[in-house]
UniProtKB/TrEMBL annotation:
Peptidase M16 C-terminal domain: residues covered: 10-105
Species for this entry: Hevea brasiliensis
Entry protein name: Peptidase M16 C-terminal domain-containing protein
Pfam families, per database record: Peptidase_M16_C (PF05193)
Annotated GO MF terms: metal ion binding
Amino acid sequence: MFVLYRTPSVAKSEGLHSYYAAALAADVLAGDEFGVLYDELVRKQRVATRVSASYNAKELSSGAVSIDINLAPGVSPDIASNEVKRVIEQLVSSGVSKKFVENAKYRGMARVVYGLDGIEDRAWFYAGLLAIGSPAISMEDVVDAIKSIRVEDVNAAIKGIFTNPAVEGHFVVLFGTECIAADGVTVDVRSANTPNGIRYWYLKEHNLPIVSVAIAFKKAGSAYDPEGQHGLSYLASLVMPHSEVEEGASALKKLTERG
C-alpha cells in the first residue's frame, strides 16, 4: 500500500533549504530500515516487511511525500494505515530527536558523494535543480546545504507536511493463491511452475514489450535481520547481483563461508 502527503511548491518556499528539510523529514520517517516508521511497523509491530519514503518536489505545483509499505502476510491495509497514522501523529506532536536528523544528514551526504562518481548521476542532479527552479550549484555545495539543516528545520517540515490530509491507495498484492486488488479493479493473475518446481505468478500486459521480474524469498529481508545485525540482508542483496567467479568460488559463497 502507499500513503501520499502533499508538500508545498518549492518555488513558493525557501528553495533548496526547504527542499532538503523536507527530504530529511521523509528520510527520518521512512528512510528504509533507518526510519521511525520502519522501526515501528517492521521491527516492533510486525505489520509490514518493508517501509520506505520518497520526496518528489515540484516548482509550479504541490509536490508529495510518498510512503510505500509492503504488508506482512495476513495484515489488512486498515491495520497498517492505523499504525502509520499513530506513528506520524506522535512524530508531529513530540518531534524527532537530533540523533535521527544527524543520521539522515549523513545518509543524504553519502548519496551526494556517491553521485559525484558518474556523469549520469550528475546529469540527474542538474536536471533535478532545473525541475525545482533552483540556480545551478555544484554537487559539493549540496553537502554544505545539507549540513546547514537543523533539527528545528526538520521538525517544522514534519509539521508542515504530515498535518495535511493523506491519500491512501493499494497495489495488487498476492498472498498464496489469493489476489487482493483495489476496489473495482479486475486483475487476471495466473500461476505456473518452473521445471524444477518453483511456483510463480504472472500478469500479462501487452502495451509495452517489457518483461519485469520480481523475486521474493520467504522469511527473508530486513524484517528478519538478527538483533544487532540490522542491514545484513541489505548487504547480502547488494553482493548477490555482483557475485563473480574468482578462483572457483563466488563472492556470495565467500560471504556465506565467513558468516
